[in-house]
Task: inverse folding
């Protein structure tokens, strides 16, 4: 059953998805034969996925510690450098042995999950934690980031292991759907968006789907849920929440677009990867 993953009422479902996807991630990394397998991420083998998860989880914990102490968060560096920065951090952790890396990740992850489990309704939306790339964010974003981290990167590893046509679990993708509009707004490529003024629709089928009207003008992405997609220049249709999320993360374009061909082309080139 679909839930509102941004509301505290969805906390138990979101955390269950985190734990489910984390177990899948661990199943891959716990097999020594997988350690050097190339993944869907061009630069990363399975070992680099572990390094990446150490990096981001320890970063979240450090941000949490500063917030609990009432300290000013670190200045956000912006999402434009996120891909390159994350790559450097993950590669640097190749210096760890496989056993050291896995132990360090699992220790940090257990601390993170304990924090998530203890979150109160007020903390879910009212406690602010600084994110190294995106700046101060309400707590509710961090469990969602973990769904992205474990869900998407497990998909990346399975792709490298030969499952090229895999889909995300619909519940996993479903809890991420509202966060994809945050992702889009944070990854508009300034040069590609220069002079663009378009209104288009997003139509996601299934229990976790819906319709959204999107406006991009002056490099700014804005979206709103709607009942009907009227007055749009093009519409991007997705057969499932999984197709929408994998497309948003630029793993593959699973959209079926209708409308103005020029607008479709512009939209498909609007966003950078992270």
Result:
């Amino acid at each position: 059953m679909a839930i509102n993953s941004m509301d505290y009422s969805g906390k138990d479902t979101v955390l269950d998805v985190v734990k489910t996807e984390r177990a899948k991630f661990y199943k891959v990394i716990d097999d020594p034969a997988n350690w050097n397998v190339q993944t869907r991420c061009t630069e990363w083998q399975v070992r680099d996925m572990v390094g990446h998860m150490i990096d981001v989880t320890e970063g979240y914990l450090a941000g949490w510690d500063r917030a609990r102490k009432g300290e000013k968060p670190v200045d956000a560096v912006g999402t434009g450098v996120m891909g390159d920065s994350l790559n450097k951090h993950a590669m640097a952790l190749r210096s760890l042995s496989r056993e050291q890396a896995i132990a360090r990740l699992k220790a940090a992850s257990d601390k993170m999950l304990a924090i998530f489990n203890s979150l109160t309704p007020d903390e879910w939306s009212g406690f602010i934690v600084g994110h190294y790339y995106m700046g101060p964010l309400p707590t509710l974003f961090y469990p969602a980031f973990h769904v992205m981290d474990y869900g998407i990167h497990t998909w990346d590893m399975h792709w490298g292991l030969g499952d090229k046509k895999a889909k995300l679990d619909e519940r996993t993708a479903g809890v991420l759907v509202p966060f994809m509009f945050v992702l889009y707004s944070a990854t508009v490529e300034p040069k590609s968006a220069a002079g663009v003024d378009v209104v288009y629709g997003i139509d996601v089928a299934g229990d976790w789907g819906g319709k959204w009207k999107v406006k991009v003008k002056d490099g700014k992405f804005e979206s709103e849920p709607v009942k009907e997609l009227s007055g749009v220049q093009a519409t991007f249709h997705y057969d499932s929440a999984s197709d929408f999320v994998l497309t948003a993360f630029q793993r593959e374009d699973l959209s079926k677009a209708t409308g103005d061909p020029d607008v479709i082309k512009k939209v498909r080139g609007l966003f950078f990867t992270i």
Q: What stands out?
A: The chain has two domains: 8-166, 192-268.
